[in-house]
């Protein structure tokens, strides 16, 4: 018998289209968030009198990818550019960015917290005389630590 969806929360994965981003305490609507990658570098070691002719592999330093966020261009919205303009010899304001994946009731089920985040790249919209899509701009954010929590 096919699943009727009555136990949806326990058997189906969460959809990825319902999320919110809180940026320095302010909620901002984004179309897409990507690049929430975490990686641990590998340290290979072998001491000289080891009877095993291979290296040991140990966990090293954690490394995080930059996160890219895309949103529509709105009239009188220069939030990205004001933040980006603050970059002057490591004196930029670093903020906390919180990304939450929500369930159908709006409750956070997965949370990613980016600490000490700052903009590293901004890509404005491209323009085309024969285009009919919305103007989308993107920002790439570097950050120092990532905290992941499940609800």
Explain how this protein is built.
With 151 residues, the chain is mainly β. The protein has a single domain, classed as Pnp Oxidase, Chain A (Roll), CATH 2.30.110.20. Helix content is 7%, strand content 47%. It contains 2 helices and 10 strands; from the N terminus they run αββββββαββββ. Strands 1, 2, 3, 6, 7, 8, 9 and 10 form an 8-stranded antiparallel beta sheet that branches. A two-stranded antiparallel ribbon has the order 4-5. Strand 7 and strand 8 (108-123) form a beta hairpin. The longest helix has 6 residues, at 79-84. It starts with 7 loop residues before the first helix and ends with a strand. The model has no long low-confidence stretch (mean pLDDT 89).
- Average residue-wise pLDDT: 89
Shape field = extended
Round the Cα radius of gyration to an integer and report it.
Answer: 21 Å
Q: Strand content of the residues, in percent?
A: over 45%
Q: How many strand segments? A: 10
Number of domains: 1
CATH domain topology = Pnp Oxidase, Chain A
Give the CATH level 1 class. Answer: Mainly Beta
CATH superfamily: Hcp1-like
Distance between the termini: 31 Å
Largest sheet: 8 strands, antiparallel
Uncertain regions spanning at least 5 consecutive residues: none
Provide a compact summary of the structure:
With 151 residues, the chain is mostly beta strands. It contains two helices and ten strands, in the order H-E-E-E-E-E-E-H-E-E-E-E.
């Amino acid at each position: 018998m096919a699943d009727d969806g009555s136990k949806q929360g326990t058997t189906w994965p969460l959809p990825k289209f319902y999320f919110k981003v809180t940026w320095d305490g302010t909620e901002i609507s984004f179309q897409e968030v990507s690049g929430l990658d975490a990686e641990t570098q590998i340290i290979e070691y072998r001491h000289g009198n080891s009877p095993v002719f291979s290296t040991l592999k140990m966990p090293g330093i954690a490394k995080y990818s930059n996160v890219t966020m895309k949103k529509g261009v709105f009239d009188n919205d220069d939030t990205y550019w004001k933040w980006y303009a603050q970059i002057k010899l490591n004196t930029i304001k670093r903020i906390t960015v919180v990304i939450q994946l929500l369930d159908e009731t709006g409750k956070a089920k997965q949370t990613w917290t980016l600490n000490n985040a700052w903009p590293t790249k901004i890509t404005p919209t491209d323009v085309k005389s024969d285009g009919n899509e919305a103007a989308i701009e993107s920002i790439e954010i570097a950050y120092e630590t990532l905290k992941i929590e499940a609800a």
